[in-house]
Amino acid sequence: MSDDTIIEGPGQLEQLTERLAQLGDLLSQTNEQVVAYLLRRESQSTGDRDDGAAAALARKLDTLTDRLDAALNTSGTRPPSGGQEELGPALAQLGESVNQQFTALAEGIHQLGRILDAKLQTVTDWLRPAEPEEDAAGPAASSDWQRVIFGPELAERPSLKLQRQQLLDGLLRGDPAACALVGQLLIFRSAMTEKMPPLLKEIGEAYYRWQPKTQPGSNPMEEALVEWLDETMQDAGVPNTIELVHSGERFDSTRHTAATRGVEVTEVLGWIVLRDNGRVYTKANVAVR
What we know:
Number of helices: 8
Structural class: mainly alpha
Strand order of the largest sheet: 1-4-5
Oligomer: single chain
Shape: rod-shaped
Strand content: 5-15%
Radius of gyration: 42 Å
Helix content: 55-70%
Largest sheet: 3 strands, antiparallel
Number of strands: 6
């Protein structure tokens, strides 16, 4: 409605009254939404400057609602007793008031929208996952973990890079075989001297659970691990050593143990641990046919 609205009769007054009623409903709904927003924000935090701005906006909307109610109560729905001549100026004045109320409401809603957008952006930023650090941090962290698991001797061997990374990847995925081997290595690295010999058997079985061995020969990781274990035992003054088993060997009940009967080793499930005199301390678990 503009300032030059032409009043043709009481019918337009009814239309204006309906429009005022709709404006009152819109103001009430907007005010209720602002109050609900403030109550929700109050339960989450206090002292925020944006909340203060939203509270001021709510008071402003309350004022607009009161002014609209006063305008409706003053104007009523009946034309002035003076007739058509007095009705025109009164409706023009009321129309100007309605336009002002609509403008104020639009500005208030726009301001509320900006406040809510800022709050939403804050929440979105808080929920967004942290950006990954630079690529250089990945290898460094991986090297640290490898030194913890294998010790500096094995962690610094270039020939074992692939196997070390495979074990670490399996650990991070939660692979049971990788977790078991890492656990046994950590236990061995922190064990007292007298506890080391029995752990050798556990490490061997955990290794072959992670890396099944069904073909003759050895791989670099297997040989390096046995070499490191033997050297660690010697440095600790423990005379036990490890002897590898290979697929295709003849089954020997004095050195091997199997769940079924057979004459030939088909899969290696552990290694032999020897005493200082060369006699068997623990047998190697194998599968046979």
